[in-house]
Design brief:
This protein is of the alpha+beta class and 195 residues long. It folds into two domains: 98 residues, 2-Layer Sandwich (Glycoprotein, Type 4 Pilin), CATH 3.30.700.20; 66 residues, 2-Layer Sandwich (Dna Ligase, domain 1). The chain is 28% helix and 24% strand. It has five helices and eight strands, in the order H-E-E-H-H-E-E-E-E-H-H-E-E. The strands form two sheets. A four-stranded antiparallel sheet has the order 2-1-3-8, covered by helices on one side. Strand 1 and strand 2 form a beta hairpin. The longest helix has 19 residues. It is globular and about 50 Å long. 32% of the residues are buried.
Length: 195
């Protein structure tokens, strides 16, 4: 009987966005929220061609370690720079799960940005916890969970699929009964990261 082979070392993922680009995007998220509170416009001219590329992204706000809002675009509708500004404002003021952020809370908000890869069909056995985010859809109902979510809750692949179905308003086993499953990866960075 052959002895089990050790797992191959994990591939080193080189970030697409430099520390400076990450800093610019995080600062933009904060500026966009402050500007919205003050009812003023900000300059949305991307500082580089790379940040002008269309990309899907989500902005997540935390307040004192608790989720305070999360909104994003799955598809690459706009330049990333504009997408981050729009999703930052939407997450702060229009996530229907929360009251809009108050002026008093703004200084304490911590941002996390997830820049998404394009969606692609994925089979359940291909899903890697911590690497893939999921979109499950059936008819007009679609639910999305970011790659970091199952790790935060200690979910396995099956629970991840079930929870994504629930997010779509579908029964937990819809992924077994014809719902489309799509996967994506995300480059995730936030305030205070040392990456």
């Amino acid at each position: 009987m052959a002895s089990p082979q050790p797992n191959p070392p994990a591939a080193v993922v080189v970030p697409e966005y430099s520390p400076e680009e990450r800093r610019l995007l995080l600062e933009l998220a904060h500026r966009a929220v402050r500007a919205s509170l003050e009812d003023r416009e900000i300059d949305l001219t991307p500082p580089s061609g790379h940040l002008a590329e269309p990309r899907g992204a989500f902005t997540t706000w935390h307040l004192r370690g608790q989720l305070r809002g999360c909104v994003g675009y799955v598809l690459a509708l706009h330049p990333l720079y504009r997408t981050v500004a729009e999703t930052a404002v939407a997450a702060a003021f229009h996530d229907t799960r929360f009251y809009p952020v108050s002026a008093e809370e703004v200084a304490e908000l911590e941002a996390e940005i997830s820049v998404l890869s394009p969606l692609r069909p994925i089979r359940p056995e291909e899903i890697e916890i911590g690497r893939h985010g999921l979109v499950v859809g059936l008819g007009r109902q679609r639910g999305l969970l970011l790659p970091q979510v199952p790790g935060e809750y200690g979910w396995n692949v099956e629970t991840f699929l079930e929870e994504t179905c629930h997010k779509a308003g579908l029964p937990g086993d819809a992924w077994r009964r014809g719902a489309a499953i799509e996967g994506f990866t995300a480059e995730v960075f936030g305030d205070g990261d040392s990456r």
